[in-house]
């Protein structure tokens, strides 16, 4: 399986020239091997990394990436140790998805406060979302957060727009003010993070 993983890295690197986005899915591997680590180190400009449905139990071996802004780790078996690893090694994250993993408590999530640029977080299908006051407490814990599990702080669903025509919709596109005020504030609105989602809508 490690060979398949490495082949995907090389294939996507060839397609892009300089690898900035890497998407690995459904390659069953519980831990990254030294060979995978060395291959990932060859791509320091990586901005978006998705490793989904691979059964990962640890992030050990995932090299520190100073340019990484989007990290999608849905459908694995990652626990609080992965949260610690992320907070120590990927300081510039804007979007993080850990949907369908093994995150259980608020206390485990406190380390994410070490990610000052984090604006979008997905923890759906983790045990922690069953905790009382889950939505409100996560926003209190992470004051810079704008989107949690595809909902804004008021609990409104975020609409995902098509890449070509979605700049005007953005976050909270159902809100009434969009019709009247968005034209005036369009430039500042564009700075908000655009929802990123790999496997779920």
TrEMBL record:
Q: Which family does it belong to?
A: Belongs to the ANP32 family.
Keywords, A to Z, come to: Leucine-rich repeat, Repeat
What name does the UniProt record give this protein?
U2A'/phosphoprotein 32 family A C-terminal domain-containing protein
Q: Which organism is it from?
A: Paramecium tetraurelia
- Keyword match Repeat: yes
Q: Where is the composition biased (Acidic residues)?
A: 155-167, 176-190
One GO molecular function term of this record is:
histone binding
Q: Does the keyword Repeat feature in the UniProt annotation?
A: yes
